[in-house]
Each structure stands twice: as C-alpha cells, then as structure tokens.
Design goal:
By secondary structure, this protein is of the alpha+beta class. Among the domains are: 99-162; 168-226, no CATH class; 502-683, no CATH class; 726-931, no CATH class. It is built from 27 helices and 32 strands. Strands 23, 26, 27, 28, 29, 30, 31 and 32 form an eight-stranded antiparallel sheet that branches. Strands 12, 13, 14, 15, 16, 17 and 18 form a seven-stranded mixed sheet that branches. A hairpin with a 5-residue loop joins strand 4 and strand 5. Helix 17 packs antiparallel against helix 18. The longest helix has 21 residues, at 700-720. Mean pLDDT is 80; it is low at 1-5, 8-74, 322-326, 698-731 and 918-932. Bound molecules: zinc ion (2 copies). One zinc ion is lined by residues 176, 178-179, 181, 196, 198, 201, 203. Residues 9-26 have a biased composition (Polar residues). Residues 32-49 have a biased composition (Basic and acidic residues). Residues 1-49 are annotated as: Disordered.
Length: 932
C-alpha cells in the first residue's frame, strides 16, 4: 500500500483539562486562562467593539504560525457569580406510577386479561370490557372485590390504569403561534388573554368559543405533544431487566483511547464518557464569565460514571415531511440512552421521543429553543439525580442523566447549539475558526485551524440572550453564536459536546457531491459510445451486483436517473464504487485510461479535470477513508489514518479543481469526534432516520398494541427457543430459526461421503473427551450416529445479519460471506448450517463451507493496493476449494458479489465486496419466516 504523507493531526491536547471551569473555591472568581482575551471591564462589553474575532487561547502555540497571535491581555477577575436563571414553568403531568400497581394483584390481573384478550385474542373493545366486568363480578360475589381504589370497568380505563394508554403520557402543550413558547393545559385555561407572554412577541395562543351550555371553550392555535423524559425513564426502569441492561461504568478506566492503539468497541471507550459532571450549578459572573460549580460547597463535582445509574443521553433533532409532496415538515426530538448495549440502544422501545415540533416550516432558533425547554429542564433535574422505582428492587434508586452529545445533521446542529449557519462567512464550522473561503483552499484541510473556544461561545451566547435584535445580529456576525437553551444546562459546552452526523456529512454530503457534481455533473458517465458507453456499463454492472438480502436494491436505471435519496443507498454505492468505476471506464486492456472521456455535444466543459485515472486515484482515497472511519471497531491511530485519507481526498480534489463544500471541511473533525464520543458506528443517525419512517406510518393506538404484541412474541420465542442451544448461541450473538430444527441423516445429504466424515473429524477435535467413533465401525468409544447428531438449519442470524446456505431448498440467498482465517478474511460459499450435539455436551453450531478460489494468475486491479482495507477480494467465477467445517463464530460479514469478465486472462471473475456489518440496524428482530 502506498504510504500517504500524514496530514498533521491535532493530537489529544490537554486543553480540555486546562480549561475546565470548576473552581475549587466556590464563590471565588475562577482564575481561568480563557478569560485572558475577554473584555477587561464592563464598559467594553457593553459597547461591543466588533473587531474581527481575534480571541486566541492558550493552545494556540500548538497550531502553528498560521494565526496572528494577539498579545494576551491581563486576566480579568469576574465576580459576583450567580446561578443562571431558568424560564418559569409549571408542571402539569399525570402521576408516574401506573395506578394498577397500587391495586390488588387480582384486579391488576383482571385488567391484564382484558387487555391481552383485546390485543391478541381479537376481542372487540366491547367483548373485552364485558369479560373484564364478568371477572370483577366474580370477585364481587366472592366478597374479595376491593372498595378502594375502586376498580374500573371499561377496557380503555383499564389500559389507562395499567399505564399502557399512550395518550396518558403525552402532554399537549399549547404553543405560541409565533415563538412556540409552550403553555401547559392549566396555564391555557387560566391565561387572561390569548396574547403570548414572551416580550416583543405578537403571537396568539388560543381561540375562544362558547359551547351549547354557555361554557367558554379555549382551543389552542398550535399544539406540541410532549413526553416527559423523567416519566419515560420511570416507566423504563419499571420494565423487567431494563436496569440490569444499563451499563455500570463505575469501575471503568477513563481515557483509554489516550493509547493510540486501544481498540474502541463502543461509546464508553471514548473520552467524554467519563468527564460528565453531576450536581453542578452553572453560574454567570458580572462580566459574563460562565462557570460550573459543585453544589452545596462540595470540593469536587461527582462524575456521572461514579453513579450506578448515570445515563449518557444523545439528543437528536431532525425534520421530515409527513405529507407527501407538500412542504409540511415536523421535527421529532429524540433522546437515546447510550448506556444500553448497542443492539438495544436504538430499539423503538428504548428511545424517548420527547416532543414533536409542529410545522409547517422548519422552526427558527427561537422556536427550537422553546421546544427544547421542557426536556432541557428535565435534564437539569436529572443531573441532580431523581429517585425512581426499579423493577425487582425494594428501594428506589437515584437515576442521573446528562445530555452527553447533540447529534444532528449540520443545519439542525447549528440551530440547536446556537452556532451560526453553515454558510456563514466567518463561522461556518461549529468546531473551528475556519472561514468560508478556506473551504476551497488547502488551509481548510491541513489542520491549521484553531478549535472553537466553548467558554467564549457560552459568554457570547448569554449576551445574545438578553440583547436587542441588532445586537444579537452583531454577536452572530462577529462570534458566530446565538442564544441556545441548552447553554443553561450545567456542564453543557456547545462545540465540544456536539458531533456532526457522519451519515449526513459523508453519505448525503461528500458521496452525493462526488456522484452528482463530479461524476454525473462532469459527464464522466455519459452515454457516448452506445452500448459500450460508460453509462451503459455503469448501469449494467450496478444491476449485476448480487447484494446481501438485508441490503435493499439500488434503482435499476441509476445511470439515467442519477439520483439517490437515502444515505444508505449512497453508502451502498460507495462500497462498490472502486469496482464499478473501473468497469465503466476501463479500456480494452482492463486499465483506466489516463485521459478525459469525450464530452457530450452541446455541453459546457466543467472547470475541473475530467482525467479518468487521476479521478479514480482520488476517489479510492475517499472509499478507503470512509471504510476505515465507519468500521465497527476502531483505534485512535486507525481513526487518524482514516481521517488522513479523507484529508488527502479533499486536497487531491482541490488539485483537480473540484469545488468543495462545508461538509468536506467538517469531515476533518471526525477523528476528533471519535476520540470524544467513540466510533462513528455507534452514533451515526441511521437508527434515528428509521424512527422517522416509523413515525410517518404511525397510527397511534394501533402502534402501541403492535409494540406489546412484538414484545410478547419475542419473549415467548425466547422461552421456546430450544434451551440447549442457548448458552453458546448467546455468546457469539447468533440467533437460530425459531422452528425446531430436524435431525438429518448425514450420509444421505450433500455430496456422497463428505458430510459425515468431515463432521466426525470436526467433532473429534471439538470434544476429544467423548472419544467419538464412526457408527459403522466396531471401535470402542461413543458412536457418532449419522442420523442422530446433526440438525440442519436453513439460516442463522449473526450480529443481526441473515446467513443462508445452498442446502436450503427454498432460497440460496445470503449463502456467500467472508470468514476469518488466520487474521485475514476470505470469501466462502456456505453449503450447510448444522447444530451438532451428542450426549449431554452443549450443542455447537457450525457451517460447511467452500472457499472461492483465487491464485496469482488473477491480474492486479486498480484498487489492489487498498484491497484488504476496502474488503474487496477477486476470485474465479464458480470455482471452489474443498469442503471444510468452521464454527459459525468465524463468519465475519456478508458480501456483495460482482461478476465480471477479465479481458487479460479471458476468464469470468467474481469480485466479492465485504459488507462489514453495514446496514445492520436493529430493525427486524423477527423473521417473517418464523411466523408463517
Ligand atoms: Zn410568542
Ligand atoms: Zn472546522
């Protein structure tokens, strides 16, 4: 592999440590390095002197001479700190413990029976209500029906008492038509006038009418449904098993990724995980300095990881259209709990949809702030710990939580954290001081920038909060900051705790730009040449790809239609791009020509180079970088290498005069984000996008019934799942079909004489203590009975991904995959999947496979030097090695197969592209197969 010169990377600096603002002597001014460059007296910040932003901080020396160094001013001592003020609010929520839990078990059970009959037994509401009454009447006759609390007698009331009526948990806030400030239902009733109470807001809250009885009815003009964060957590902790699945981080060793080679597997391996502080108060000084102090004069703040239940929350906000072809968008506010295991974190039941922001247009900053207010208030409460009941525990426990990260696409992120828009001339990036011009110069990609100063941003944001519109505009222009409600939360840092979603920045940003702007827009895949044109070849090869079944297909006419909508489609396209572009551009010697393809008539030559070979080399850098960065485990040194590939892609693109966008620059911060919050794989927004499509389909009450049903089925299947398979299966994250597998006769299946011999040999090595012998021999030992040792499986699921086998008569899909062998990956065909078990040993799951054949005569391909990183493997078509048996734990990932013909050796080849777990979101827990 060619060694690319490394782009200098911002190494882990101790700046974070140095600038932490917790003072050990509360009440005293925080002697704080970052204050150096701030106004020295009140006068100065009252009359903003809007020179170009020139604040520097102490880490500047590390970032080279690129920036003019402003002479440090003497440190100011801010004084008279006071806690930041929260907007007033009134709580108006239902009691959190389902009332049925306070009723007698018999009554509780009666409610449950009625609900189960309705949900599963197809009983109508009336029938279920009748059966509820019958049961209650029986209790009455027996004299055991309690008088208090009086049992309810209607199905819907029973659901309510059980806490499974979703409407019960949703507060319908009335919100102002203009600024979206929320008002509780009680406030709505008691307000003296329909005018919004926010100063300078001309919005209205409700309409009034008089009903038939002469009563005045107020109807809110606009509604925001809201679900309490604390209430949701209470309900979650009362679910069996939920508290147990929360990661206890108390015995972690923090900052493990300071070791560049430490392999991170999840978010808790990141730096920020162990830094969040609880029980702190955010204070503001007379001169605008923001600091966070431990409460109650404690010398030190407690870390979130010192608590058994310290939840790290992801906040995500986005917009989606809910009405087809109409510009009506709504925006859900989601909180996910990072402390749950990866495979449970993004399950629908574990993600809290705190609110749905109304449309029809995307909210402005003030509106978002108002929408975020109720849940931010709850986060502040949770930072001090909230006592909650826990299923199976006698005593309630303190539950802590914090906004660990804000994880959105770029526009939403900038709106939420109060930073300027991404097209702002001076502050387009929320993470550094790059300006919009540098996005198209090498300076945007060489790490010569200075990170944003969070405390400076906080200070300006608080100024902006109380400022006139003109001054807000000036602060935005000069400091790139606006007011954000999140800044009220102690410990919140707008730049440090924001991450840029990889999915939007890379797949919908950079990859889409590459195809739309450069490849299609630059006529690199034109129709000139008829059936041999690049466009035809492009379509032909895309349509020939045999994708794994969990990957939905790309459109058939991609060459013509040239647009993909979903991030997942771009991601899929990128994995096969090295092969696809080679096939589309190759000459008669299978080489990529060092020239520009002909320009279609009546088109304008684009400004950038159209040289196939240079473009191909450049694009390979991007493919490799994305492949490394989106890996499901990663070390910091790998992250920096991946980052370096992307930097070089951008720098080479600039060489080719390809215009770049803010997404390209923003992606320069990805390795730093990986350091802060862990591997991209754990926090990219694919899961949240999926929730949006669920929300789009939602039928409220039906939905909750469906959830109950799915859960019950999962649980039932778990129990019926043949208990003996479980211990091993659980270990490798392998799931088996739910139908009981049947024994097969090993001698009558597969090629004659192969399966029995191979499996006997394998089992002898696996269980030497059993002294297995051929069942037709007279040797001493345990006979390996041909028809009583192996059950055949039609498929398995490993890490949530489906693998089939060629022995399955119904479908051959997913019978190809990569397996690990001596620390490399090789492609195989899966012939059969077996559960073997003898006597009382724990059954074992294994696969019969054949390797796809390759040797040195296969010519080098243009991607060969990155082949192993890209996971692309070339073999002869339809040629296989000998049968062998492997444990299914060796199966690594599914693959896409691209059949091509080599002009050089005149043979058909198979190009196997690894799908390194991509597309593996916890979507369908259940196979349709299982419930037919
Ligand atoms: Zn208003
Ligand atoms: Zn930047």
């Amino acid at each position: 592999m060619k060694k690319w010169p490394r782009v200098p990377q911002t190494l882990t600096s101790n700046a974070d440590e140095a600038t932490r603002c917790i003072s050990t002597e509360p009440g005293q001014a925080a002697p704080h390095a970052r204050d150096q460059d701030l106004p020295t007296n009140k006068d100065q910040h009252d009359h903003f002197n809007f020179d170009p932003p020139d604040y520097v901080h102490d880490a500047d020396e590390e970032h080279g001479p690129a920036r003019a160094h402003v002479a440090a001013q003497p440190p100011i001592h801010d004084f008279n700190f006071r806690p930041v003020v929260l907007p007033d609010d009134q709580e108006d929520r239902p009691s959190l413990v389902p009332r049925a839990f306070q009723e007698r078990p018999g009554v509780h059970l009666t409610y449950l029976n009625a609900v189960v009959g309705n949900v599963f037994g197809n009983h109508t509401v009336q029938a279920a209500t009748e059966s509820l009454n019958n049961q209650l009447n029986c209790m009455l006759v027996e004299g055991v029906l309690p008088e208090h609390p009086r049992p309810v007698r209607h199905l819907l009331s029973a659901k309510c008492r059980l806490g499974i009526d979703p409407d019960q948990w949703i507060t319908q806030y009335a919100i102002c038509s203009e600024c979206w400030k929320h008002y509780t239902p009680v406030q709505l009733r008691e307000l003296l006038s329909p005018s919004c109470t926010v100063p300078d807001c001309s919005g209205l809250l409700y309409d009034e009418r008089v009903d038939a009885k002469g009563k005045i009815i107020r109807t809110a003009k606009k509604i925001m449904p809201h679900v309490s964060l604390i209430g949701s957590l209470r309900r979650m902790f009362m679910r069996p098993g939920f508290a147990k699945s929360i990661r206890d981080s108390r015995h972690d060793q923090p900052r493990r990724n300071d070791d560049e080679d430490f392999v991170m597997t999840d978010m808790h391996d990141s730096t920020l995980w162990h830094e969040l502080e609880m029980n702190t108060i955010r204070e503001i000084g007379e001169l605008g300095t923001i600091r966070d102090c431990p409460q109650d004069n404690r010398p030190m703040a407690m870390k979130i990881t010192e608590h058994c239940y310290g939840l790290h929350l992801i906040l995500n906000i986005n917009w989606m259209g809910i009405l087809n072809n109409r510009p009506h968008s709504t925006g859900p506010i989601y909180y996910a709990i990072n402390d749950l295991p990866q495979d449970q974190r993004y399950l629908q039941v574990n993600v809290i949809c705190a609110a749905i922001m109304p449309g029809p247009k995307e909210p402005n900053v003030q509106q978002i702030n108002h929408c975020l207010e109720p849940s931010s208030r709850e986060v502040m409460e949770l930072k001090n710990g909230v006592k909650m009941d826990i299923n199976g525990k006698d005593e309630p426990a303190n539950i802590f939580a914090d906004n660990a990260i804000l994880d959105c696409d770029m526009p939403a992120s900038h709106k939420c954290n109060g930073t300027a828009g991404h097209s702002h001339d001076f502050h387009p990036c929320a993470f550094c001081d790059v300006d919009i011009v540098k996005v198209n110069t090498p300076e945007g990609y060489d790490n010569s920038w200075t990170p944003k100063d969070d405390y400076q941003m906080l200070r300006q944001s608080f100024y902006s909060r109380d400022a006139t519109q003109a001054r807000q505009d000036a602060i935005l222009k000069d400091f790139g900051v606006r007011w954000s409600i999140l800044n009220l939360i102690s410990g919140w840092l707008p730049s440090k705790k924001s991450v840029l979603d990889f999915m939007h920045a890379i797949f919908l940003g950079i990859i889409s730009h590459l195809f739309m702007r450069v490849l299609f827009g630059g006529y690199m895949l034109s129709g000139i040449g008829g059936i041999n044109s690049p466009r035809r070849r492009f379509e032909e090869i895309i349509n020939a790809v045999r994708w794994p079944s969990h990957i939905t297909r790309l459109p058939k006419n991609l060459g013509e239609n040239q647009s993909l909508k979903k991030a997942d489609e771009w991601r899929r396209l990128l994995t096969v791009t090295p092969v696809v572009l080679w096939w589309s551009w190759r000459d008669e010697n299978d080489e990529i020509p060092d020239k520009e393809p002909p320009l279609p008539p009546n088109t304008v030559q684009p400004d950038f180079s159209r040289n196939c070979r240079s473009l191909y080399q450049t694009i390979l850098l991007l493919c490799t970088g994305v492949c490394i960065l989106s890996s499901h485990t990663i070390s910091m040194s790998q992250a920096r290498i991946g980052q370096s590939f992307i930097s070089h892609y951008c720098l080479e693109s600039l060489q080719l005069r390809i215009p770049l966008t803010i997404n390209h620059h923003a992606s320069m911060h990805i390795s730093e984000m990986i350091r802060k919050v862990g591997l991209v794989y754990a926090w990219w927004l694919f899961a949240f996008e999926r929730f949006n499509s669920m929300l789009e389909r939602v039928h409220h009450n039906e939905q909750i019934n469906r959830i109950i049903k799915v859960q019950a089925q999962t649980r039932g299947s778990m129990m019926s799942q043949i208990a003996v398979y479980q211990s091993e299966a659980a270990e490798d994250n392998v799931r088996l079909p739910l139908r009981a597998a049947k024994f097969i006769d090993l001698r009558s299946h597969g090629p004659p004489g192969v399966f029995y011999t191979l499996l006997l040999e394998y089992c002898c090595r696996l269980w030497p203590q059993l002294r297995l012998v051929n069942d037709l021999s007279h040797d001493d030992g345990t006979p390996f009975l041909a028809s009583k040792v192996a059950r055949m499986l039609t498929y398995i699921r490993k890490d949530g991904i489906h693998y089939g086998c060629t022995m399955n008569r119904r479908t051959q899909s997913d019978s190809l995959g990569f397996i690990s062998r001596n620390s490399t990956c090789v492609p195989v065909q899966i012939i059969g999947l077996f559960v073997v078990g003898i006597l009382d040993v724990v059954p074992h799951i294994c696969a019969v496979v054949r390797q796809l054949q390759c040797d040195d005569r296969i010519p080098d391909m243009p991607w060969t030097r990155y082949g192993s990183t890209l996971g692309i493997h070339v073999s002869y078509a339809n040629e296989f090695g000998p049968y062998e048996i492997i444990p299914v734990s060796n199966i690594e990932c599914p693959l896409a197969l691209i059949p091509v013909h080599s002009a050089i050796i005149k043979k058909d080849l198979w190009i196997a592209v690894s799908f390194d777990h991509s597309g593996n979101e916890p979507e369908d827990l259940l196979d349709d197969d299982d419930f037919q």
